[in-house]
Design brief:
Layout (H helix, E strand, L loop, with lengths): L2 E6 L6 H14 L6 E6 L2 H10 L6 E4 L16 H4 L5 E4 L2 H5 L5 H13 L3 E6 L3 H5 L3 H12 L12 E4 L16 H19 L1 H4 L3 E5 L7 H5 L6 E4 L6 H15 L1
Parallel strand pairs: 1-2, 1-8, 2-3, 3-4, 4-5, 5-6, 6-7, 7-8
Helix pairs in contact: 1-2, 5-7, 7-8
Bound molecules: 2-phosphoglycolic acid.
2-phosphoglycolic acid binds next to β8.
């Protein structure tokens, strides 16, 4: 399986800044066959960047999309409109769950809509700080995983990527709340167990599971070598070109 390095730019970079960053990134990247490099810019930048990108080197992801293909949904962008521009879409990121109030039912419909439009969903799941403190991590993970995958058939499962992002570990790149690899390993093995129970061993083992939450060049190696982890989802550090390239290099070394 490939190793994934996905950069989530969140609400950063205007179209011009995104284009300059992408230009520099493409210039410094060789062709990495075994590392799938993906960036998720703002929706506005997807169209121009899709013309600029070299798809042999890297891919684009949307940060979100709407679950209906068209209709009276003011302000939304559908996966049918994103089709052709992106290969992947983040769905159910914790900022969408907790700031924008998306629930598992909506996320389930978004995962189905992405697949229907030939876009691979990166389904983000993770427990909050208080769920962790009250020993509810396993329940939260099970609910979000099975909720998000509710409309995914056995055949489609391998097109879905799971990103485990403990909410308490996000945006803490200074290391204040860095997640211990041992703790992550336990949750990743739970995710794989639930996938196996639900879809069977053969289908479950084709699913890539990523880790995200304050990933930096300093800790990427430790996360990428956790058994069952196939990549990283990087927020803050992906905005700094040198750091993102360093993380890609680490992924390449781990894969080799
Ligand atoms: P972070 O963000 O790397 O800045 O913690 C990760 C994410 O939210 O996807």
């Amino acid at each position: 399986m490939k190793t994934y390095v996905v950069g989530n730019w969140k609400l950063n970079f205007n179209v011009g800044e995104a284009s300059i960053y992408l230009h520099k990134l493409l210039k410094s990247l060789p062709n990495y066959r075994d590392v799938e490099i993906v960036v998720a810019p703002s929706t506005l930048a997807l169209q121009p960047l899709s013309l600029q990108i070299d798809r042999h080197k890297m891919k684009l992801a949307a940060q979100n999309g709407f679950y209906r293909d068209y209709g009276a949904f003011t302000g939304e962008v559908s996966f049918s409109q994103l089709k052709g521009l992106v290969d992947y879409a983040l769905i159910g990121h914790s900022e969408r769950r907790y700031v924008l109030k998306e629930d598992d039912k909506m996320i389930q419909k978004k995962v189905a809509a992405a697949l229907r439009n030939k876009i691979k969903p990166i389904l983000c799941i993770g427990e909050t700080e208080s769920e962790r403190a009250f020993g509810e991590t396993a329940d939260a993970i099970r609910d979000q995983l099975l909720g998000g995958l509710g409309e995914v058939s056995d055949d489609d499962l391998e097109k879905v990527i799971i990103a485990y992002e403990p909410v308490w570990a996000i945006s803490s790149t200074k290391g204040a709340k860095m997640a211990a690899p041992d703790e992550i390993a336990g949750v990743v093995s739970l995710i794989r167990k639930i996938l196996t129970e639900t879809y069977g061993k053969e289908s479950a083992k084709k699913v890539a599971v990523l880790f995200g939450g304050s990933v930096t060049p300093a800790n990427a190696g430790a996360y990428l070598t956790i058994p069952g982890v196939n990549g990283v989802l990087v927020g803050g550090a992906s905005l700094i070109l040198r750091e993102f390239i360093d993380i890609i290099d680490i992924a390449k070394r781990v894969q080799a």
